[in-house]
Amino acid sequence: MGLALDQLGRERLTNGRQLLAAIMSEHDRLQQNIRKGPLPWDIDRDALLAYDEWDPTEGFSAFSTEQLRCLLFASAERLTNGDHFFSVAASCLSDLSERDLDLSAGDVRLLAAVSEPGEGSQTCRSFDLVVDLVERLLRDRVPGAEALARDVADHVLRWNVVEHNGPDTRRYYRSWIAQIRDKALELADRAPAPSAEGVVGRDDGYGLAVIGWLGVAEDWPAGVAALLAHCTKSWSARPSGGWEKVCRQRLDAVQDPSALLRGLLDLVVTTEPVTFIGGSWRRDVLIGYNEWLVRGLVWAAGVLDPDWLPEVLVAVAERCVRLCPGHTYPRTPVPGMRIPNACFRVLGRSGSEASLRALVQIRGATTGRRGLQELEKALSEASAGQGMSTR
Questions:
Q1: Where along the chain do its domains lie?
Q2: What predicted TM-score, i.e. pTM, was given to this entire model?
Q3: I need a labelling partner for 76 at 20 to 30 A (CA). Which of 140, 224, 244, 250 fits?
Q4: Tell me: the pLDDT tens digits for 97-107?
Q5: Considering only CA atoms, which of 122, 192, 127 is closest in space to residue 163?
Q6: CB neighbours of residue 204 within 10 Å
Q7: Per residue in 313-361, pLDDT tens?
Q8: Are residues 377 and 333 in contact, defined by beta-carbon separation less than 8 angstroms?
Q9: Cα–Cα dist 196/201, whole Å
Q10: Which residues make Cβ contacts (< 8 Å) with residue 314, sequence separation at least 6?
């Protein structure tokens, strides 16, 4: 059956939108009466007092229970699709969630259909209410509750949820939306979704691609898990001598490390950003949680120094620069210049003629000031190894 709206559901949602529009119109009227002129002190204080004392829920006593249900659906929809936490819709949702509206499984199904966090969403509060209501219906053995719980679980399993900001936050942070998803799965007797395979997180498009290529961690070839775990320890601007020493040991323990590293770095270039849901947003993400892993893989490629190094690192750097064009807010599919800068430094240290040509090629695609500075340093290092000037 799923969570799609039927004709009756669309009609009820339309009725709710009309009720909410009337409440918001009153809010806008009161707000507009405050300002008397263009200057900051041109304020009608009586109008300001009336606005501060106005309660969007004060007229709810005149509504029927069915009207209040429809208003609940419309408030959840509006809050889901972009209204902020202190909006009129949020106030209505907060009040209505505390009322006994005698909601059936069909009512909660309609509420769930309009409550998935949207692109402009700033909160997952609406879907949190859905899961709480499913729990209540199951506890009260309401007809249709078990089928609803299964459909909600099927729905949240399609979400790509950001659980953690990075490996260093796993011990003390887990996103609200991930907790809501897992509660929905638990109510339907489903196992929680795995958050990672080894050190590879499922919290970005790159991680999903790597897991799709390597499979589950138990099936990884010998030495791969240890190498990837070491690559996630790329916390400094440059690899230390100790890091490189351990990296060589990890590479020696892997069968055909050149093919492994190339395959993992090629995924940075070939993988498309995936739409993820956070606690208060929905956006496309290529690299987020696994940023340290990717930078470590670039460093490991520098330690191995295969023939394909210039070709692949150029492609990796250009892809990341294109997806993060000099800013990180609004959030971009790649969070910053750490990975391109690592590519610049590895190519500069390589010092081969091919690496020098690669750096010159990347320069044409780099626009950010900090990125250009790092690139110039790498060019200086590479050109010095060739006995020529940077120019």
A1: 7-158+167-187, 202-386
A2: 0.84
A3: 140
A4: 999 999 999 99
A5: 192
A6: 29
A7: 999 998 998 888 665 556 789 988 889 889 888 888 876 777 677 777 7
A8: no
A9: 4
A10: 343, 347, 358, 361, 362
